[in-house]
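Suppose a colleague, Dr. K., hands you the sequence of a protein chain of 271 amino acids and asks what its three-dimensional shape might be. Before reaching for any lab equipment, you can write down a predicted structure in token form. Begin with the sequence itself:
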Amino acid sequence: MGNSAARFDPGTEQLLVAVDDGIGRITLNNPERHNTLSVEMRRAVPAALTALNEDPDVRVIVLTGAGERAFSAGADISEFGEQRTTPQARAEYDRGSAFGGSVWAAIDKPIIGMIRGYCIGGGLLVALQADIRIAAEGSQFGVPAGRLGLGYAVSGVRALLDLVGPASASEILFSARRLDADEALRIGLVNRVVAGDRLETEVSELAQMIAANAPMTIAACKAAIRELRRDPDERELARVDAMVEACFRSEDYLEGQRAFKEKRAPNFRGR
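The predicted structure, expressed as tokens, is then:
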């Protein structure tokens, strides 16, 4: 397994990558600064995601932040003057962004965002890339762009809009206020809110449940969800249809039927 994420070195101590029992984990690791998205962290995320996606031992990816205070408080505002002023500097900043580019769209495996504490600005944009978000009680969400005067990219607006709808997206972006975990749950920003001491357990149980299911089926479902969120004239439905057909032709499909007849848990191999 030359591409094994278990041996992947992200090249910075500000990003941790681990694999355990089919679950890959990416941890934003700058807790002293609320896991703000430094340049080196943002540049390391795409390669880490790709390594986990290519690792045959990984069935699910968990994305989280180190420490108890923050998933991520967003971009490092102290870098804005140098890196987000001229058009050329902004373009370079966006190319190195953890939430920019096409890398997220290339990930076939399900991603769970495990959120504790602040999930703000760019940190929220990273969390929006997850397929499922589970938050601890006391977490806070928001987009402070309106209080900073910066322009907010269409891709970020669309990610938020797709999830919570135009009314809630408008309030979040126009007001720049903080939302607590209960409000985030009510508007659909997160899937569920759990007690802080249950967060790891709840995420682990869900990840293990997903990891036990047929990987090809999960990948086809994720692809279908992704394509249906795109504009109709941009959808690649033929690719999804091919993935669905591959499920029916797979060994896992036969294994699922055998396991059902034998009243046992299936042992899916992703082929």
